[in-house]
Amino acid sequence: MRFPMITHTCLLAYISTSLAETIPSDHILWGEGGRPTTLDKRQQASATPTSTRVADSACTNGPFTRSCWSDGFSAATDFDAKWPTTGKMVTYNWELQESTCNPDGSDTRPCVKINGQFPGPTLYADWGDTIQVTLKNSVPNNGTGIHWHGIRQLGSCPQDGVPGITECPLTPGDTRTYTFKATQFGTTWYHSHFSAQYGDGAFGAIVINGPASSNYDYDLGPYILTDWYYKTSWQQGLLAHNNLQAGGPPPNANTVLINGTNVKGSTGSYAKTQNLIKDKKYRLRLINTSADNTLRVSLDNHKFTVITADLVPVKPWVTDSVLISVGQRYDVIFTANQAAATYWFRASAVAACVSSNDNPDALAIFSYKDAPNQNATPSSSAGSLPRDCNEPDNTNLVPWVTNTVDQTAFMNQVQTLDVDISQTVTTNGQNIVVWSINLTAINVEWQDPTLEYVATKNTSYPSAYNLIELPKEGIWTYWIIQEPADTRVPIPHPIHLHGHDFYVLGRGQGVFDPSSFPSTLTWQNPTRRDVALLPGGGWLAIAFPTDNPGAWLMHCHIAWHVSDGLAVQFLEAKDQAPLGDSAWQNGCSKWTEYQKTMKYPKTDSGLKMMMRDSYF
Ligand SMILES: *[C@@H]1O[C@H](CO)[C@@H](O)[C@H](O)[C@H]1NC(C)=O
Ligand SMILES: *[C@@H]1O[C@H](CO)[C@@H](O)[C@H](O)[C@H]1NC(C)=O
Ligand SMILES: *[C@@H]1O[C@H](CO)[C@@H](O)[C@H](O)[C@H]1NC(C)=O
Ligand SMILES: *[C@@H]1O[C@H](CO)[C@@H](O)[C@H](O)[C@H]1NC(C)=O
Ligand SMILES: *[C@@H]1O[C@H](CO)[C@@H](O)[C@H](O)[C@H]1NC(C)=O
Fold first, then answer.
1. Residues 433 and 514 in one domain
2. From ligand 2's centre to the CA of 566, what distance in Å?
3. What's the distance, CA 136 to chain centroid?
4. Which of 96, 135, 193 is nearest to 587 (CA)?
5. How far is the CA of 207 from the centre of ligand 2 (A)?
6. 349 CB contacts (<8 Å, ≥6 apart)?
């Protein structure tokens, strides 16, 4: 595919600086008595900064100074350009194994677990740490590969964990080590990017400690919201695919899990968060690893202050609820300022987002320490929450660190990628219906990852690699992701980009009209994140700067949509792309050998993450 001439423009040059100091990881909940110390007050004054978002080198992180970090780093730091160098490496040893799961107590099914846990272990690090995860694949007959969602992987593309793009899958019995740097901070997650495996349990949360754009007392940690099926994702994926061939929607989810649990009929239990202290502020890290029901998330009687969208700190935004599409994260703060009682936390299906209608409301219980009975069934009600499927817009999610997207090259350079279902011929010669982006369904070969093409300087990329070259560093690229006007299935798609955050210039219904440029788009500090919702029957305009050489997937995060091809990959500045080392090569040799006799050959795009989804 050819990439048109691009006018050279300015850009976010990145400078990888380091102040080479070890950052003390000060996560102790000091000031707990509720009284700021003198130092707190001084810091608070310098760190409550909508107007003066400048780093204060004397400022350290604490309940009243969350925007500070340490040694000159703060929420005001341009994390594209610099991050602390802690000199610290956090290491994890993980083993992926077959197991069984029944999180709501009603149905036991095969699943996979990392170190015996479902969801997998939470990975903790401090901003600036190096993270090293050694993964052993003990699943007897399937490959694996872990993707670190939202992690920029600056200069470390071979660690991105995408079989067929940045690596060969990890052969059963083999071990590989991922090493990468936490240049960003906040809440994210990891998941297997090897076909359906993620939906069977190969996922978990990542917490990178760092500054925040608003103060809080306690961090309640990650709170994973996910839907759950009683069939394995491989079975589910096949059903979804077959239904698509017949023009029908995929099967409904059986339940939705909040923090790994829920009640189904007479079995299971509600997730409980207890001992909330009156007037304290709590941070909750919401992660959507779900696929099916579109849910609006809220806590009865309490407002949320949203402080991050994905890994990007935003100006605190107060709202009654958030709508989270798959792969997205919101860190929210709520204040325990209501009567000491128990309250429902809700993840409620939104029909406007084309949800399945089975068990639409997932519930959890939040209770105050001083409640008469912390185990009492809450009597709270949801109040009136929006029922639309609209993501928060650019006026709600304003990045804390201000960036301006350069618009001078937009008209010359912008390209449209159509997203639709289409007829395509697969390798076995059958006509099948697939999801596609730019009307070609992606199909990668596990044993020939894109980075291998780059390493051998082979530019004969198969057309089904959906590879778009971005040869030049230091420029802005702009993309309109469009559902065609005549689409048969106008549904929203959460679009996720690897290796970069993107800026959400705008979105709308119908077909994007370039003649209305630029007034309809936001150029001054637009929302920045790594997943955004393409409205059903509409368009999404995004921009990102080329500042990270490598092969980066951009795809719909709905499991079986990417399974059925809804993805492209950007090959950025291939001559400067980091390549796999000898261990990486070795892994490929093992896989290539294994694949000759493997029990379960590839039956999909190779990239599907969940296969247990979804709406249609
Ligand atoms: C391995 O893959 C096969 C088919 O692709 C699937 O049926 C099976 O459930 C998978 N096993 C695990 C443990 O992921
Ligand atoms: C979620 O579950 C984990 C494990 O059971 C627990 O430690 C954690 O406190 C729970 N999170 C919240 C916010 O309740
Ligand atoms: C997760 O994302 C999917 C797809 O966008 C959406 O349907 C679902 O509601 C989301 N779940 C939550 C808990 O927000
Ligand atoms: C989209 O597909 C068309 C037709 O195959 C092709 O000419 C164009 O280059 C593709 N767009 C991109 C951005 O690759
Ligand atoms: C380049 O890749 C193509 C497609 O996979 C392959 O057919 C060809 O043999 C490769 N060329 C070289 C020199 O390896």
1. yes
2. 34
3. 24
4. 135
5. 14
6. 293, 294, 295, 355, 356, 357, 360, 361
536 and 591 inside one domain: yes
| Domain range enclosing 232 | 223-368
Q: Confidence class of residue 19 from pLDDT cuts 50, 70 and 90?
A: very low
Q: Which of 117, 224, 259, 261 to mutate to test the pocket of ligand 2 (most atoms within 8 A of CB)?
A: 259
Q: Would the pLDDT of 242 be above 90?
A: no
Q: How confident is the model at residue 121 (pLDDT cuts 50, 70, 90)?
A: very high
H and E: helices and strands count for the chain? 6, 34
What is the rounded distance in angstroms from the CA atom of residue 305 to the CA atom of residue 277?
A: 18
State whether 349 and 485 are in the same domain. no
Asked if residue 576 lies in contact with residue 473, where contact means CB atoms within 8 angstroms, the answer is yes
**Which DSSP string do the residues of 151-176 spell out, in sequence order?**
---TT-GGGS--BTTTBPPBPTT-EE
* Distance, CA of 234 to CA of 198 (rounded, Å): 10
What pLDDT does 43 receive? 41
Number of domains in the chain: 2
437 secondary structure, DSSP code: E
Closest atom, ligand 1, to C-alpha of 112: 13
Is residue 376 in some structural domain? no
Check if 294 has its Cβ closer than 6 Å to any atom of ligand 3: yes
Q: Point out the ligand 2 atom lying closest to the alpha carbon of residue 273.
A: 14
Contact criterion met (CB below 8 Å) for 186 and 127: no
The two three-digit tokens of residue 236, written as one number: 């589910």
- Do 361 and 414 belong together in one domain? no
Cis check for the bond before 119: say yes or no (omega within 30 of 0). Answer: yes
Substitution site in 460, 463, 588 for ligand 5 pocket (most atoms within 8 Å of beta carbon): 460
Rounded distance between C-alpha atoms, residue 296 and residue 93, angstroms: 35
The CATH number of the domain holding residue 285 is: 2.60.40.420
- Output the pTM of the full model: 0.85
Q: Any idea what DSSP says for residue 106?
A: S
57-61, 272-276, 428-432, 593-597 — which is least confidently predicted? Answer: 428-432
Give me the residue label for tokens 């850009």: 11
Domain assignment present for 33: no
* Structure tokens that stand for 347 in this block: 């993840």
**What does the alpha-carbon distance between residue 344 and residue 256 come to, in Å, rounded to a whole number?**
15
From 368, 383, 399, give the residue that closes a domain: 368
d(Cα 254, Cα 246) in Å, to the nearest integer?
Answer: 22
Rounded to whole angstroms, how far apart are CA atoms 212 and 224? 20
- Judgement on whether residues 264 and 352 belong to the same structural domain of the protein: yes
Residue 479 located in a structural domain: yes
Tell whether the model's pLDDT for residue 564 goes beyond 70.
Answer: no
Residue 168 covered by a domain: no
463 plus 590 within the same structural domain = yes
Closest alpha carbon to 613 in 236, 192, 234, 149: 236
Contact 13, 547 (CB under 8 A): yes
Q: Are 348 and 464 within one domain?
A: no
The H-or-E segment that residue 2 falls in is: none
Residue 95 CB less than 6 A away from ligand 1: no
Give the separation between CA 288 and CA 610, rounded to whole angstroms: 13
**Same domain assignment for residues 421 and 301:** no
